[in-house]
Amino acid sequence: MYTEIIRLNGGAEDEAAISKAGGLIKAGELVGMPTETVYGLAGDALNPASSKKIYAAKGRPSDNPLIVHISDWDHLKPIVSEIPESAKLLADKFWPGPLTLIFNKSDLIPLETTGGLETVAVRMPIHPVARALIRESTGYIAAPSANASGRPSCTTAEEVYEDMNGLIPLILDGGPSDIGLESTILDLSDSVPELLRPGGISLSELTACLGNIKINPAIDGVLDPAQKPKAPGMKYRHYAPKGRLIIVEGARDKVVAAINHELMKALSTGKRAAIIASEETANKYKGDIVRSIGSLTDESEIARRLFNILREMDKLNAELIFAEAFHTPRLGMAIMNRLIRAAGHNIIYV
Ligand code: AMP
Ligand code: MG
Fold this sequence. Notes:
By secondary structure, the protein is of the alpha/beta class. It has helices at 14-26, 48-58, 85-94, 128-136, 157-164, 203-210, 252-268, 299-315, 332-342; strands spanning 4-7, 31-33, 40-44, 67-69, 99-104, 119-123, 141-142, 170-173, 184-187, 194-197, 214-215, 244-249, 273-277, 289-292, 320-324, 347-349.
C-alpha cells in the first residue's frame, strides 16, 4: 500500500486533507493523526474491523485496549454506561487535553476496540487537526500511539512513516507533538479513581481536583528513586530502542563519573555506546555520541524530546545507551515511567 503524507499548515487547504482522512476512516481505513500527546493511529472506534486493522498494523496484542477519542462532551454519554461526578469535575478542568478517563462501556463500543474489556478509555484531545478529524469521521476515533508495538511512540509524522509505511494509506503531518508523552490514564470505572499511567496531567493536579486517588502498583517510576525496584528486569520492555539502555541514578557528580567509567569499559570492548544527558551535564562526558535532552529547568522540553532521542539511538546504531534519570517536578513521573520501561528496568544506582 502506498502511504501518502499530507503536510498541514493551518490554512484553508487543510480542510480537503482532513475531509479525505475522514472519508478513509469512515470507509474502515487507518490514518496517522497528530495529537498534542503523540501521533495516533486513527480508525473508526465503532467499527470492529477497523480496530482489528489497528492491532495488525501495530503488531499489538489484541488484548491491549485502544483509547477512544471524542471532540465534544455530548458524545461521551452514548458510549458509557454512566458518567460519574468525578468525570465531570475532571473534564471541566482538563478536557480537552492529555487526560484519558476509563468508564464502564455501553454496547455502542465493540469489544474489539476495548481488547475484550467491559470498560472504555476516552480522551478529548486539544489538537485542532485531531478534533477536526474526529468531527469529519463518525465522532469516535480509536487511536493508540502510532508506533509499531514495543517501539518508542512517534512525535512527528516522519516517525509515523518509519513505522507505518506501506501499512496505512495516509498520514496527516501536523508538526511535532507539543507534549511528546502519552496521556495520563485514570480509571473511574470503580469507586476509587486509580492512576494507571502517568502522563501530561500530573498526579498532584488530579489529587487537587478529586482528593484521594489510588496508584496502580504496576506503574514504574512512581517509587522514591532511592528505593530499588523489587524485581528489576521482570517486566517486558516497551518504548524501547534496539540497543541496551541503562539508566544511572544518583547524585549528579557520581552519575557522571559512573557513566564515564562504564563508557570506557564499553569502548574497550569495541561497543558503540551513547549517552542521554541533561544540557547541564552533556559536556562532562567523554564519549563520541552524547545527546542533550534539554535543560533540567525545562521539563516540557525533556518530555517533548524523549521518544525522539530514543529513536535517534537506533539511527546511530547505538549498542549500549547510558541515560541519566530525569526526576523533574511535574512531568518527572511520566518521563521516568517511559524511560524505565524503555530500559527494561536496567538501572544502576550509584
Ligand atoms: P496507547 O494508545 O498506545 O497509549 O495505549 C493505550 C493505553 O490505554 C494502553 O496502555 C491500554 O492498556 C490503556 N487502556 C485503554 N483502554 C483501557 C481500559 N479500558 N482499561 C485499562 N486500560 C486501558
Ligand atoms: Mg503506545
